[in-house]
Specification:
Layout lengths: L3 E5 L6 H11 L3 E5 L5 H12 L4 E4 L5 E2 L3 H11 L3 E11 L5 E5 L6 E2 L1 H7 L11 E4 H7 L10 H11 L3 E13 L9 H25 L5 H14 L9 H14 L3 H11 L3 H24 L4
Parallel strand pairs: 1-2, 5-9
Antiparallel strand pairs: 3-8, 4-9, 5-6, 5-8, 7-9
Helix pairs in contact: 4-6, 5-6, 6-7, 7-8, 7-9, 8-10
Length: 299
Amino acid sequence: MSEILVVDDASTDETASVLGEWESKDARVRVHRQSSNQGIARNVDWAMRNATGDLIVRLDSDDELDARAIERLSDALMAYPAAGYAHGAIVEVDADDNFRRLRSLARGPYHESEAALRATLRGYRVAANLIMFRRNALQRAGYISSNRNFAEDYYLSVRIADVGFGNVYIPDVVGRYRVWTDDGGVRASRKVEEIEGLIEVFDNAIGPAFRKREWGQGGVARARSRLASNHAAAIDRIDDSGEREVLQEALLRLSSSARVRLTLAARRRGVGHALDRLKSFNRRGRDSVKSALRRARII
C-alpha cells in the first residue's frame, strides 16, 4: 500500500489543521509535526527514515508531480536494478505558475556508480529534486548525513554513488519545480549557507570518496575552483560591505585558487559584468548544441 508522509516543520499558520483534516480523510496520509523548526536537511532525513516503502519519492511543499511520474520513475528503477535513484526532466515555473523553462539533462539513461561519482565534480546532476529513491540505497548511504540546509541533496547523491549505486534518468517530464525570486537581488546570508554546504560536500563526501579510490585530487580542486568562481557573481548584488566580506571569505574556503582570487578581484573592481557576458555567451552555445542534439534524437 502506498503512503504519503508529510513533515510539518513547526508551522505557525493553518498548516497543522489542514494536514489533520487530510490525515483523517485518507488512510494513506501520515503527518509528523516537529516540535521546533528543524530545517530542510533534518526534515527530509526524518521523512526518508520513517517512510515504509521500498521506493521513496522526495517532494518539497512547493513542487508538483506529474500524474504519471510515480509510474515512470518506478519503471526506470525496475529496468536498472543497480540504480539507487531515478529522476527526469521538469518544467520550471515561477511563483505565479508561469512557465519559465524546461529543465533536462544531456545524458544517457543510466550512469553506473563510478561514472556517477566522477560526474559529481560537475555539480548536482539532476534537473530538480523530484526524485524516486530505493530504500536500500538510502540506508547504505546513511540517509541525509549532512546537517547543512543547502546542498544536502548534492551530498546524498555523492554518498549513494560512493556506496555503489548508479542512477537512471528519463527524458520525460516528471513534474513542476517552482523557483522563487529574491526582490533584493540576493539573500547574502543564504548564499553563505549555500557555500558552506558545498564545502561540506567536498570535504566530507567527494574528497573522501575520491581518496578511497586513489583517484587524483586535481579534478576535485578544479571543481571547487569553478564553483567558487561561479558563485562569486553574487558579490555584485550585495550592497553591504560587511556582507560582501563574509561571502568572499566563504568562497575562499571553498577554493583559494588563483582563478578564484582573480575573479574576486575583478568583482571588487566593478568589472564582473564582463565575466558575466562571457559566461552567458558560453552558456547559450552549450544550450544550442544540446537543443540540436535533441532534435536529431542523438540524446
